[in-house]
Structure formats: C-alpha cells, structure tokens
Specification:
The chain is mostly beta strands and about 475 residues long. The chain is about 0% helix and about 40% strand. It folds into 2 domains: about 140 residues, Jelly Rolls, CATH 2.60.120; about 300 residues, Tachylectin-2, Chain A (5 Propeller). It contains 1 helix and 33 strands. Strands 1, 3, 26, 29, 31 and 33 form a 6-stranded antiparallel sheet that branches. Strands 2, 27, 28, 30 and 32 form a 5-stranded antiparallel sheet that branches. Strands 4, 22, 23, 24 and 25 form a 5-stranded antiparallel sheet that branches. The mean pLDDT is about 90.
Length: about 475
C-alpha cells in the first residue's frame, strides 16, 4: 500500500477550489461566497456597418493568438442573412474590423465577413473556432450551424466544419452533424485529444416536454462523432419555465468549468450560470443558490435581455480573467430597433470564482488528508471582508483580520513548527501579487518542503477575510 492511499487524489500543483465540499473536511463560521465578474460599462464591439445591422452577437469565439486578441462573431440581422465576421484588437478593449475582401455584401467587398452559408438563401446561426495546433496546415478549425434546406422534406440544416490557416480564409469541408439544432458550443481546444461539442441533438427539443437540454459528443476528426450523452437539464431547483438554451466549457486548473445559458422563457431572458466538473464535463456541479455569473444590465440597456459567454476560456490579462460575452436588449422576435445589442467584457480576479469568507469572529476550514508533493503553500486570499473598499486597504493597514495556516497530521494534530502560531499572518490581498497568490511563510524560515511525501491536512484559520484557492509551488528537484 502506497503512502498516499488514504489521501485525496488531486494534483496540488494546480489551484484547488472550494466550489463544492470536496476539499472541506470540517469548517466553522465560514460561508461560501460566489463572485461575479465586473462588467466594463459599454460594449467593446458594436454594430457599425449595414451587414451587422443593430446586433452583433458573440455566438462565437475570442482567442488571444499570435500577439492579438481575435474575435469571430455572428452578424445577426432581421433583413439580411447572418454571417461570420472577424475583428481583432491589440488590447482587448478597442477593436478593429479589417476589410478582408472575401465576399460581396451590401454591394461591397470592403467588409469583415469571413464565412457565409453554403447556399445563397441560408444563414449561419453560430460558430466555434477551435485551436488545433497539432495540424500545422490548418491550425484553426470551425464548427458552424448552417440553415441550408431548412424547410425541405429532408432538411440539410445542421452543423458544418471548416478549416483555416490564418482565421480569415476558411475552407468548408462538409456537413458533419446533420439535423442538429441551431444553438451549440464546441470547446475551443482539444480535450484530451478530442474535439468536444455541447448542443441539441436531433429530435431532442421537445422530447418528454423537457424543452431545450444539453447533449455532449466527442470526435477525433470532426467527422465521426460518439453517441450523444445527456449532460445538463433543468432540475427540481430550477423554475418551471426554465430551459437550457446551451452550455459552454473549458479546462481550468484542477477543474473543468463552464456556464449554462439559462433560458427563463417567461419572460424571454437568458443569463449564464457558472458550473463545474471534476470528471472533464460528464457530470456537473452547481451552486446551491444558483447565482447569475454575469448579471443583466438595467432595463432597456444593451445587455438587459440575453447574455451568453464566448465559447473560449477566459483570457488572462492585467492579472485578471477576461470574459467576453454577448448582450441583447430583448429576446426572440423583437422588431427593429429594439433588438439592440453588442459584445461586452467582464473581468474577475485570478481564480476568483468563489471564496470561503469569515467575519469578525474567527472561523476555520480544514481540508481532508492531502499528499504533499513538496514546495511551499501558496494561497489566493483577500484580507478584506468588504471587497468594495480599496484593494490595498487590507488588515495589514486596518488592523482587522487575516488568515493563518496550521499544518496537521492525518489524525488532525498540529505538526511542530507548522502550527498557526508559527505561521506569519496573511494580511494582504493576493490579487495585487503578480501571480494572484501569496506564499505562506513560517517563523524561523521553515519550509513546507520538509514535509514532502507526507500525508497532511491544512487548517485555515480566518477572520474578516476571503479564501479563494490554494496550491503547492513547484516541487523541489529530487
């Protein structure tokens, strides 16, 4: 029997989160707090041209690639067929729409349209761009929904695939999922070598009266796909009129994270809810309180009605996570000009999805047994209970609380030299550190690397502070 057989099996070099109770063996006087990204007040991309009408929609992807932020979005209109458009940016906030000259639209080739539907009267409803750097000839792939022959006895609509070297010139290589329904998201990178898609399989829309739900499929080559697996559907905690319009996912540290697009039906509004998985997206966890991840804007604003995230993982920029999202003022069928919308940006502290918070009275959280790989303990924390205050006004300056860590053996006994009294008070806001994490330091310069290979527990003792995540620094060389 190995030394870590009774320890929780997790890679401590990756960030460990408290989104569920897996890492909580015991706790007292702490509460779980879910955090929303902070929205940039205006859209970062608006409609400017006739082919964009009044509502560019991020049924698409934002990637940072080759030194630029790159966006593929759908120009959603009521008078012209939607197409895939392209924009790029140096800083992620100010965007330009290069004239690529590929298609004649509105009597001009001076436009940023990079893909049209496969038939003249058809349209593209949404797309996902996938980075596939294993393919040097076509490092970018796209899956997109095409409405071709939608009214025919044997409709040709469904999901199509294309490939590209530069993200501007796309070569379609056929329909790959006939009959799949219009709203889907694919993962924007391979997952364990596979392409992964979350969408609505044929015939599933009204099966059993459940409405929109989310099915998962995989492929090695974008042509042959596994049998669909139902992975997300409304449950007893959701309101009765709610359906799941779609979902997106991305690998993140020790988890797979994602968001459900919750369609509330009455009224017709859409918002994202953060979800998480510990098995790569086969089973999903949700917050008990079901909070919005990005909140709606005020009535009649550009993002008051429908919100959905880009298909891609957030981009790390300026020590924050940048989430791009689509906003619309109204839902289905709203006539001009009230279908106004744009593409927005919201940012979150690194790994700041959820925290355990303690108030004025000290609380604690103790982990289950962990196998320590060596290195030092790093913590993502904020020694401010009120996070609306200045980021630097922590307990270091106000004399309020903070966090101390105690290392314990498998029986819960403090280990000599690593007790809470030996731990230097964490009285900072680690968001201000370059990595978003702060090191745990001990009296007399002791190092947790001394405990390399041992099974241990951590007890975080907290007052007026938030604890987001922890991890091991890079283990020492053998």
């Amino acid at each position: 029997m190995s030394a870590n057989d009774d320890a929780l099996r997790t890679d401590l070099s990756q960030a460990q989160f408290f989104l569920d109770n897996l890492l909580i063996a015991d706790s007292h006087r702490v509460e779980r707090v879910w955090h929303q990204p902070r929205k940039y007040p205006e859209p970062v991309l608006r409609a400017e041209h006739p082919w964009e009408y009044n509502c560019p929609v991020l049924y698409g992807t934002v990637l940072r690639r080759d030194g630029l932020f790159r966006m593929w979005y759908v120009a959603w209109t009521l008078t012209m067929k939607p197409r895939v458009c392209y924009a790029e940016s140096d800083d992620g906030v100010h965007w330009r729409k290069p004239a690529v000259g590929l298609y004649e639209v509105c009597a001009t080739r001076d436009n940023n349209v990079v893909l049209q539907a496969n038939e003249p009267d058809a349209y593209i409803d949404n797309c996902t761009v996938i980075e596939d750097d294993e393919d040097s000839e076509s490092p970018l792939k796209m899956l997109y929904w095409d409405s071709s022959d939608m009214g025919a006895a044997k409709p040709g609509y469904g999901i199509w695939a294309a490939r590209s070297r530069d993200g501007l010139r796309w070569e379609p290589f056929g329909q790959v999922l006939p009959g799949w329904i219009d709203r889907f998201n694919a993962v924007s990178t391979r997952q364990h070598g596979k392409f992964v898609l979350l969408g609505r399989m044929p015939g599933s829309m009204d099966a059993g009266g459940r409405g929109r739900r989310v099915w998962r499929i995989e492929s090695d080559n974008l042509r042959e796909w596994t049998q669909p697996q139902l992975v997300l559907q409304p449950d007893e905690e959701d309101p009765l009129p709610m359906q799941y319009y779609s979902a997106m996912q991305f690998d993140y540290e020790s988890l797979t994270l994602g968001a459900i697009e919750r369609m509330h039906m009455q009224p017709d509004r859409l918002d994202p809810e953060l979800i998480f998985s510990r098995d790569g997206g086969l089973t999903w966890g949700r917050a008990r309180t079901r909070p919005q991840f990005i909140p709606w804007g005020p009535p009649d604003s550009w993002d008051h009605g429908w919100l959905n995230l880009s298909t891609a993982a957030p981009i790390r920029e300026h020590k924050r996570l940048w989430f791009y999202y689509s906003g619309r003022s109204r839902g289905h069928g709203m006539k001009y000009p009230h279908n106004y919308g744009g593409i927005g940006l919201a940012t979150l502290r690194i790994d700041g999805f959820c925290s355990l918070a303690a108030g004025a009275e000290e609380g604690f959280v103790q982990t289950p047994v962990l196998h320590w790989p060596g290195g030092e303990l790093e913590v993502n924390y904020d020694a401010r209970y009120d996070q609306s205050s200045h980021p630097g006004y922590t307990s270091k300056y106000t004399g309020a609380g903070g966090i101390r860590v105690e290392v314990r053996d498998t029986a819960g006994r403090p280990i000599e030299g690593f007790t809470a009294a030996d731990c230097l008070l964490l009285d900072f806001n680690s968001e201000l550190a370059p990595s978003g994490y702060g090191p745990v330091l001990w009296q007399n310069g002791k190092s947790l690397d001394e405990l390399k290979g041992r099974n241990i527990r951590f007890c975080f003792r907290m007052r007026d502070a938030h604890l987001y995540a922890f991890r091991a620094s890079r283990p020492s060389e053998p």
